[in-house]
Structures are given as C-alpha cells and as structure tokens.
Design a protein that fits this description.
Blueprint: E1 11-17, E2 34-38, H1 39-49, E3 54-64, E4 68-78, E5 81-92, E6 95-105
Parallel strand pairs: 1-2, 1-3
Antiparallel strand pairs: 3-4, 4-5, 5-6
Organism: Roseimaritima ulvae
Domain PLAT: 69-106
Protein name: PLAT domain-containing protein
Length: 106
Amino acid sequence: MLDLTFFKDQTIVLSFDGCTEPDGGPNYVADRRVEIHDTYVAQQIYETKGYDQHSYITIERKVIGWDCIHYRVSIRFGTLGGQGYDFTVTKGLFGLRFDGSMEWIM
C-alpha cells in the first residue's frame, strides 16, 4: 500500500465495498494504524468518531463487465478534506491495462 505518512497522527479505516478484501488479510498493509472493516462497521466508526484522529479509505467496485472492472477509491480525512479516484482495469489481447484519474477533491 502507498506511503501513509500523511496520516501520521490518524487511525486509517480501510473498507471494501462490493469487492472482497485481498488475500493476506491485514498483513498486506505494513502500517499497524490501518484497521480493515466492512463498510457497515466503517460507517459506524465514522458516525461515532468522525474525523477525530480517524481517516477513511474506501475501495468500491462500481461496475464489472466481461472485459473490465471499474473501481472508485475515496480518501476522506476531514469535513472539507479528501480525494476521489476512478480506476479501470481492462483485460485485452496483450494483458491487463490500468487507467486511473482523479475525479474529485475537496
């Protein structure tokens, strides 16, 4: 996973919506400040703790087709702080192709 030093004083709540957590459980995230929860539990944490020492990363599968998958990654770290990205993984004759773009920032 990417460098999480930006969130140095935060607990990061990572959730997956519409897709399963990658194999390896929490071991694929070296940073112990990352908590992995389903979207329901992540929402409960947000409702009780908000952004007080918590940031939220959600990976959401938007669409799955016969040759591609679309994901949205939302990174929220404050009431007016966050970024959203859309990614597409396409399977073609020459293997997988990955495309992504920033879709929103606040």
